[in-house]
Design a protein that fits this description.
- The chain is built from 2 helices and 33 strands.
- The chain has about 550 residues and is mainly beta.
- β12 and β13 form a beta hairpin.
- The relative contact order is 0.14.
């Protein structure tokens, strides 16, 4: 056995790190779109495909064996925490995980809807149930208890005539009439044993929107009986080998609740597998989903994009943000659209809101991906009517074995925000730091008060920068940007590696906060509940409410 001196080992390690750094710092010469973190057939895409899709592909090809893990929450860190209800926002008694939360509320009826990735869909592998990978929960009492939950049903996709499970990436919103909408992915792959796409045949990728039953029926509906017939808003085919066609990913939804009453809007990423490009597209639908526009590309010259988020401004115009991977450093881009007659709309050219010199792939002491997915909120209050606030995370330095633009592992992430009072998304924009330690940020502005609430995870309470807590920085009406009141939401730090199925490899791509009538609703992922036999601390979707 060869022995090395400590000096020799140091030289070897430094050489390896230098090689890695050089490899990531040098420009791509074979293809401008190569991204080794993407699984086939997305490996030639520069923008990252949804981690939901990546995890799905891995699970259906390598059916996992569940293992019990003992790691759970650690002792409480001394801090002020919220005293309002915090619950597991599902009725799943199994250790199968839930993550990637979205939330909506109807304050008139105190009804709360949560959407989330739900790995009860794996039960379909064993023909135990027709569960899908998009779960939902409904509360009648403002989020204090869960009345019913379930998974969206199988839908036969028309282009391939394939009965297909829901695919995750949920986004929910509500209308003034009390109708909730749940948008999510439906897709199949020829590698899947149960999704219905024949081998060597075109597969199908769709975005569906489910409307809820009436506001009165929501008080007693059960499971899938809470939903009306879905609308297939986007529908395309793709092939895996050779890669071709269009795969639709990372949807978000916004319902117009202004006096303009223009309907609802869905943005998403369209991956063209033939030319390795990805664009941000938008669709407009009527409230009853009887009519939807065709898809409109709104990312202009940007051809490597991901992570769109959409909201409606008080004047009825539509604000969209997304990430462009076309140039280094990365850019957060903004687009403004105006509704026309019927379901038509016109959109501006994209404009740059901020540049990201140190974008994050993962944290130095955690395994899960931290994608750059900006979120935005619009102020409806009298303090700053129409103000748009965008939040995202960055890394403070180039990280370990990184370069000046792409981070392999980020030693310290922080949250930034940009805001504008201009009438259009062209700005000008002002950027500010929100917190010195944070990731997965989400922003909500209470329309009744104008309080700006920015929620985020942070590892600041852990000496090893591994275990997580959820925090909220609150800015009173008219005080953003300024000095916020910071609240620690979680009373004990969470161990993200303790899920018996996903371990620490996937923690979702986003969380969401909303605010209404003096209450903040926080939908997020944590591992506090013991489930299964033997019991383990699996991922669950949680809901916490706190004063705004």
């Amino acid at each position: 056995m060869t022995k090395y001196s400590s000096r020799a080992l140091s030289i070897i390690m430094l050489s390896l790190l230098a090689t890695l750094s050089l490899a990531y710092a040098l420009p791509q010469t074979s293809s401008p779109f190569s991204n080794n973190s993407n699984p086939p057939p997305f490996s030639d895409q520069k923008a990252p495909v949804s981690e939901t899709v990546s995890t799905y592909l891995n699970l259906i090809q390598h059916i996992p064996s569940m293992t019990s893990t003992a790691g759970g929450p650690n002792v409480a860190f001394s801090a002020s925490v919220v005293s309002d209800p915090t619950i597991v926002f599902n009725l799943d008694s199994s250790p199968l995980p839930q993550n990637e939360e979205s939330v909506a509320v109807n304050p008139a009826t105190n009804t709360v809807l949560g959407g989330y990735n739900d790995f009860r869909g794996l039960l379909a592998l064993l023909n135990i149930s027709p569960a899908g990978f998009t779960g939902f929960s409904i509360s009648n009492d403002g989020g204090a208890t869960v009345r019913t939950d379930g998974d969206l049903p199988k839908v036969t996709l028309p282009l391939t005539n394939s009965p297909t499970l829901s695919g995750g990436d949920p986004a929910v919103d509500s209308s003034n009439t009390g109708t909730f909408y749940l948008a999510n992915l439906y897709y199949n792959f020829s590698t899947s044993k149960f999704a219905g796409c024949p081998k060597k045949a075109p597969c199908e990728s769709s975005l569906l929107v489910f409307p809820s039953v009436s506001s009165s029926a929501l008080s007693s509906c059960m499971g899938t009986g809470c939903w009306g017939s879905p609308k297939i808003v986007v529908d395309t085919t793709f092939t895996e080998t050779p890669a071709g066609g269009v795969f639709n990913d990372k949807d978000w939804i916004a319902v117009d609740r202004t006096s303009q009453a223009s309907g609802l809007y869905l943005t998403y990423t369209a991956f063209n597998l033939l030319n390795s490009r990805s664009t941000i597209d938008i669709v407009r639908c009527t409230y009853d989903l009887s009519s939807c526009s065709g898809s409109t590309v709104i990312s202009g010259p940007d051809i490597s994009t991901q992570g769109s988020f959409v909201a409606v401004r008080p004047d009825g115009s539509i604000a969209v943000v997304y990430v462009s991977y076309d140039t280094i450093p990365l850019r957060i881009r903004g687009v403004q659209c105006s509704p026309g007659t019927g379901v038509t709309l016109t959109c501006s050219a994209p404009t740059t809101i901020a540049t990201i010199p140190f974008a994050i792939i993962s944290l130095v002491n955690n395994d899960f991906r931290v994608p750059l997915l900006p979120q935005l909120a619009v102020d409806y209050s009298s303090a700053h009517p129409g103000r748009v606030v965008v939040v995202w995370e960055e890394c403070k330095t180039a990280g370990v074995a990184g370069s000046t633009f792409i981070i392999l592992t980020c030693p310290q992430s922080f949250v930034r925000a940009a805001y504008t009072d201009a009438a259009t998304m062209a700005g000008p924009w002002t950027s500010v730091n929100v917190t010195s330690s944070g990731f997965f940020p989400t922003v909500a502005i209470d329309p009744s008060k104008g309080t700006v609430n920015i929620a985020y995870y942070s590892t600041i309470n852990d000496l090893w920068n591994h275990r997580l807590d959820l925090f909220v920085s609150q800015y009173p009406s008219g005080a953003f940007p300024g000095t916020p009141a910071i609240t620690r939401v979680t009373s004990t730090s969470d161990e993200p590696d303790s899920d018996p199925l996903l371990r620490g490899g996937f923690f979702g791509d986003y969380i969401q906060a909303i605010a209404n009538s003096g209450i903040v609703y926080l939908a997020y992922t944590a591992n506090y509940a013991q489930k299964g036999t033997p019991p383990s601390y699996g991922q669950d979707n949680y809901l916490t409410t706190m004063p705004d």
